[in-house]
Amino acid sequence: MSDQAWIDLYWLPLGAGGHFVRWNGRVYEAVVARHEHRAAAPLFHSALQLRSGGATYAIEMGPVWNVPEPDRGTVCQGPVGARWLGRFRAFQYEVRCWPGGSIPDLAEAVDSPIRVSDDPEKVRQVLGILPHVPPLIWGRDELRVGDMWNSNSLVSWSLARTGHDLTGLTPPRHGRAPGWQAGLALARQQAQPHQPKRLPT
Predict the structure, then answer these.
(1) Is 52 helix (H, G, I), strand (E, B) or coil?
(2) 1 in a structural domain
(3) Which is nearest to 44 in space by CA: 159, 168, 179, 145?
(4) Nearest to 153, CA basis, from 178, 175, 132
(5) d(Cα 64, Cα 94) in Å, to the nearest integer?
(6) Strand runs labelled E in the chain
(7) By 3-state DSSP, what share of the chain in percent is helix, strand and coil, each rounded to 5?
(8) What is the DSSP letter of 136?
């Protein structure tokens, strides 16, 4: 129905559908867990599906080269790893707000979907904020908050900036979502316009 409005969140295991990404994720988590003196945890990345105005949107951050469709709702592009690497297509990511689009490996999502909102105004606000996501360096802590910028940052930032209550919204199976706190930190900074911001220029 055209008057339906909702936001669903999906938790996807890191590397779903790709052995290389999954292996690298496990190595990364093993190193971090050893440094923090804890057991390694399953890693998850998040994505959103959003319904508004009779269309369903796929909202995700991913490499520019992993979805071939030319009209995929790209609203932002940024570098991976380092600013200078962003000159090369292999080191570029994009944020998609794709009407009628798909999220790769959605079938592998765990304990999902989670209905975040069915408020039409909140849904429109998320659609409106996405083109304003800053193109921070993927995998780096440019904000200096102790957490990297990635797809989880995009999701937590877009929901926090539009006033959603994210209390209790955590990855499944005692997992971790690196980047989630970075998105929340940026949202807090932007909500305080009179405070100095760490957002790089």
Answers:
(1) strand
(2) no
(3) 179
(4) 178
(5) 6
(6) 6-13, 44-52, 55-63, 74-79, 92-99, 114-117
(7) 30, 25, 45
(8) P
- CA–CA distance from 4 to each of 7, 34, 118 (Å)? 10, 46, 8
For residue range 80-105, list pLDDT tens digits in order: 999 999 999 999 999 999 999 988 88
Number of domains, the chain:
1
pTM of the model: 0.85
pLDDT (tens digit, 9 = 90+) per residue, 45-68? 899 999 999 999 999 998 998 888
User: Is 48:39 a contact under the CB 8 Å cutoff?
Assistant: no
Assigned domain for 200 exists: no
The token pair at 121 is 């105004």
Residue 201 is assigned to a structural domain of this protein: no
Give a yes or no: residue 30 inside a domain.
yes
Question: 179: which residues sit within 8 A by CB, 6+ positions away?
Answer: 45, 147, 148, 149, 150, 151, 152, 153, 156
SS3 191: coil
C-alpha 172/C-alpha 85 separation (Å) is 33
Tokens of 87: 């000159």
Task: Quote the CA–CA distance of 52 and 44 in Å, as a whole number.
Answer: 26
Task: Write out the residue range of the structural domain in which residue 15 sits.
Answer: 6-190
